[in-house]
Amino acid sequence: MRIIAIAFVVLIHTDPFQGVNEYGNMINFGTKTVSRFAVPFFFITSGYFFALKTAHRDSATYLTKRAIKLVSLYLFGLVLTIPPFFGVELTRAELSGQSLRATAVSSAIQYLNPVELVYYGTSVSEILWFLPALLFSLFFVYLVIVIGKPRYVLPVAVCFHLVGLLGSTYTMFVDVPFEIRDALFFGFFYTSLGHTIYTRGWEASKEKSRLLFGLVVLFVVLQFVEFYLLGYPLRGEPFGSYVYAPSYGISTVLLSTSLFLFLLSWPTLLADTPLPAWGTYAVGIYVTHPSVFAILRAMRDSLESMSYPIDWMIVWHLISTPTTIIGALAVYLLAHRLRLIEIGGSHFPGEPWLRKRRSN
């Protein structure tokens, strides 16, 4: 399931058919709305395994190992992402007649912004925000547990998530003057939800799988309805005039939870297919796809500047997502082959290569 979820994550970022025409915007709205389960799914899964792995062992030790893994992935992502993003900024500055030096300094300051870099994970690319968010989300869950209140993990997280909903999707009720797509207001809730599913024994039997699948379908429809109403009738905008794309809503909780419980109720689903093995590469595709897609966008923009309207071509929108996924996988496998990282092991850039040199 990991590889499927990652494909949906990439689909969110590549924006197929957006801006082509009204029907293209409708299609993009549909794909983004369906895809919104993916990121919460990974938070829920991480919280579930946090509870599972620490049921009979020290939670601090497990959290430390997860933190090292997430930090290494984040650093690997930054090493890959900075060059193409920085190159694009310099190219734009050159074409617009701006100072390259000033652009370089401005970009460096932005990349090194401590809050954006360490907590929000958006200083270079907003796509990488998930890794710091997951790290801090696990820490928040751990913090509530160590103070002796494990039963309050989910209720506390719900309170923060309600603020997040008001600040992102239900903005008509209150103005939240700070960033809410982060660990505290988003990741903490879904991570604590996964943790609670395990600790409370909410797993369903296979006999309930058909019911849960029906709920998944129902909540997909409900999410369409929720996002449609919020994005168009309540804003007085015709459907297809633009793409309404909130990060999450109330129905996202129901959809993500029912999907996760459905997969728990049927653990052998797709076990006889290559998908479980491909799941090994899911995190690598996530980390590498921002740089790959940045290069593809730069190529698209270059062609557009030469009067080749590629962004209006259906073929571009059909191939951009699979090309990004395949390119990201190729970069990940190449990095492993060059011993820059180790699939299934360390992702600190260059650490496997240094370790091999020391052993020789």
From TrEMBL:
Protein name: Acyltransferase 3
Localization in the cell: Cell membrane
Coiled-coil blocks: none
TM ranges: 38-55, 67-86, 127-145, 152-174, 180-199, 211-230, 242-266, 278-299, 314-335
GO MF entries: O-acetyltransferase activity
GO cellular-component term (any): plasma membrane
GO biological process, one term: enterobacterial common antigen biosynthetic process
Main localization (coarse): membrane
Lineage top rank: taxon: Archaea
Swiss-Prot/TrEMBL keywords: Acyltransferase, Cell membrane, Membrane, Transferase, Transmembrane, Transmembrane helix
Signal peptide (from-to): none
All residue ranges annotated as the Acyltransferase domain in the record: 1-331
Membrane topology category: Multi-pass membrane protein
Alphabetized InterPro entries for the sequence: Acyl_transf_3_dom
